[in-house]
Amino acid sequence: MAKNLADELDSMKISGPPSLFEMPTEMVYKIAGKVDPFSRLTVRKVCRNLRNVIDDTDPGFKKVEVDLGGYAGSHRLCLTSSICSYIYYSPNSNNPGCTVERNSQRKSIEKTQLNAILDDLAVIVKNPKLRLDNFVIVSSCGNSKEFVEWLREITQSGSLLHTKRIRVIDCPGDLLGVLSHCKPGFLEAIEFYCFNSGKIDEITNLEQWKRAKSINIDSR
């Protein structure tokens, strides 16, 4: 394989600088690995080939926090690699859809707040090489069922969510269902801060619960 790669690179020197589509797949993977995690989310939109490579590369995030609790009227997605970066999803006042903001850059789109944040989150969660240290959910009663259904569809189409710790804050009972979509054995710590613990009995028999090393349930 190394000899074939060298031969391809030599031929490119003769014919001129290669386009991205002409580069060997191995080289495209190397390039993708050098791109910072946030830029990958943009680069994958360029073409199908890049999207396939990016989606088969470790996303590079170690902590994901999704806040559906109405932070200052907005939903919020926090993605952490070496640093934490926030993406805000705010309702538009005069027209349908929402405004997405990151690093003071704003863009108005036709999706609802919930659909927009879940679509962006799906790009990361669907990646089979994602390995998180922390997955945090801050929810509200109005969005809990939709979130659990979304996560169920995501995990049915691929692998379970690989995270060492799951932390759910302000969750109604419905949101306890997210636990069944985490990878048992890989999941080490469970933290639930919920309105009531009425549905706790439904998850204590899950393999994720039994194999966790640390469990903290705070019922308010």
From TrEMBL:
CDD domains: F-box_CeFBXA-like
Cross-referenced SMART domains: FBOX (SM00256)
Transmembrane segments: none
Entries under InterPro entries matching the protein: DUF38/FTH_CAE_spp, F-box-like_dom_sf, F-box_dom, FB224
Domain F-box residues, every copy: 17-64
Tree of life domain: Eukaryota
PANTHER family per UniProt: DUF38 DOMAIN-CONTAINING PROTEIN-RELATED, UNCHARACTERIZED C.ELEGANS PROTEIN
Protein name as annotated: Truncated Fog-2-like protein
Organism: Caenorhabditis elegans
